[in-house]
Amino acid sequence: MNQKEIKESLRKDISSLVGAKQNVDKEYITERAVVFFERLEKVKKITVEDSVRDKVVKSLCDDFLGSGPIQRLMDDPEITEIMVNGPKRVYIEKGGSKVLSGVQFDDKAHLRYIVEKMVAPSGRRVDESSPYVDFSLKDGSRVNVILPPLAVDGITVTIRKFLRSIAKVEDLVKLGTVTQAMADFLVACIKAKVNIMFSGATGSGKTTTLEVLSSYIDHSERIITIEDALELNLRQDHVIRLLTRLPNIEGRGSVPPRELFRNSLRMRPNRIILGEIRGKEAMDYLQALNSGHRGSLSVIHASDPIDALTRLETMSLYAGLNLPAWAIRKQISQGLDLIVQQGQLQDGTRKLTHITEVGRLKDNNIELRDIFTYEIEKLTDDFKVKGSFQAKNKPTFFDIFKKKGIKINEDIFT
Predict the structure, then answer these.
(1) Phi, psi torsion values for 172, nearest 5 degrees
(2) Three-state DSSP state, 150
(3) What structural domains and CATH numbers belong to the chain?
(4) For residue 307, what is the enclosing H or E element?
(5) Helix, strand, coil % over all residues of the chain, rounded to 5
(6) Is 33 exposed, middle or buried (0-12, 13-18, 19+ CB in 10 A)?
(7) Alpha carbons 301 and 281: distance in angstroms, whole number
(8) Structure pTM?
(9) What is the chain's alpha carbon radius of gyration, rounded to the nearest angstrom?
(10) Tens digit of pLDDT for each residue in 285-318?
């Protein structure tokens, strides 16, 4: 018997017993392994070397208690993303670079087993009738799974790890994502209940930035979050987390973000945080911004502040209210205060490239006014981006800080 066959036989042996035992731990797996190897030696006269035994037990502990062969990647704090392209090709993002990790699953069945084990606690499903799914792990890491034949080369898993090392704006400053002046301004905006939309491409870090800044919301406030997958880990006590629901196998019972958003307005929120604006809920979001719900935070996928407004306007049209474009733009200009644009640069670093104020409607166009920007100067020979943060303008809503007693130095805008 080779190592793979030994592991599979022992897995079946343990699996046949774990149904009756609720708390499976490393000690239990080790005990069953000892019995299995003794029986293998007595009955089949097969002696397994200690090194092989240790590898098999370690692998099964990862399978039963963790995420299989990628568990050690999950445990590495320097790895920010894990990308599984079938059982034999697992890539990681580390230090902003994507490289092949060398980690492999035994085969397609092994990968499928780990995927199903990861999905199960979320209450979601992934199968032939529902071949892709988004969900979050207990530690806050975000996972996307897509199955064949949609994923032609095998089951594809993308894990964006929850970074516990980023908890305060000081951490963002240390990473070079923002300057201290920008951080001070954004914290003041959170405290002053400025309506902010966080924009950026996938993996740019916008959700992490939102989560960090949300920690400065007062603990006395009632916060309602609306998400497709549980990504946000807010630190306040009074948080109500609402989660969308996909249709069942019969195509019924779905609860989209729009319905949750409408219901949240009846729940006496002090703050509403929309995990991501994807479609029709954009119109409800705009109406909430214009009906006195201050301090709302949201996320949108867009390449720059102009694109963010265009996408918000386009998705508002999905609601089918037949409103003219100027009416939607007016709601955007009157309700949204600030766009925080984040990007991942060529060298893998993440920067807030724009902090932009949303102005009034003029000649049927929304005026945008940059408060801070990141200006790229050059790309060095070793592929490092050189640039600098620039203060551009003082926000027109600066007086709101004085009215709310929030101290912030005006000199940071010059």
Answers:
(1) -65, -35
(2) coil
(3) 1-65 (no CATH), 66-162 (3.30.450.370), 169-413 (3.40.50.300)
(4) helix 305-317
(5) 35, 25, 40
(6) buried
(7) 14
(8) 0.83
(9) 25
(10) 998 898 888 999 999 999 999 999 999 999 999 8
